[in-house]
UniProtKB/TrEMBL annotation:
InterPro entries: Lon_prtase_N (IPR003111), Lon_prtase_N_sf (IPR046336), PUA-like_sf (IPR015947)
Record-given protein name: ATP-dependent protease
Gene3D superfamilies named in the record: BPP1347 like domain, LON domain-like
Keyword terms of this UniProt record: Hydrolase, Protease
Organism: Cognatilysobacter bugurensis
Keyword Mitochondrion: no
Highest taxon listed in the record's lineage: Bacteria
MF (Gene Ontology): peptidase activity
All copies of domain Lon N-terminal, residue ranges: 3-191
GO terms of biological process kind: proteolysis
Amino acid sequence: MSIETLPLFPLHTVLLPGGTVDLRVFEARYLDLVRECGRTGRTFGVCLILDGPESGGVASPAAVGTEARIEDFDLASDGLLMLRLRGARRFRARRMRVRDNGLQIAEIDWCDSDPEEPVRPEHAALVDVVRRLLERAGDPDAGAPGRQFNDAAWIGWRLAERLPLSDATRQSLLQLDDPHARLQRLLSLID
């Protein structure tokens, strides 16, 4: 059995499955990572920084993170590389090592995919909250098929992405494996 590894890009933000994050990339270690991903089609992991800097040093990342796929890229007016990342699968890092250039590589286990389960009646109000949030933002997901609006996991991730939550709260939601437990936690956060 081979050990699966994933390079990490620790950030002071949480990338959620299906969510997006925009990044400005300027450090050599991450420019090398992006080049490698472009050449090989590989992905990398985004983890919330628990301690340490976002640039210029080695940070201590959370053990649960999200696989990031590069969805778009561009050069900013200042010449820096701009990336739009899309969150995919969740993972748990077992062990980490640091390359000579400071890039962290984690041995990982993939978390189980979210089951496709309908939103339970006690969480039905959260579906309306997601619809209103997406409509106000002019988000194309507002017109998503009704099936998505009945998917407990999708509703939970969109709420966790759109609500004004702390990074620590988003991280705790990312670490929950049960989409219904995630919705219950979100319901308790909404007054």
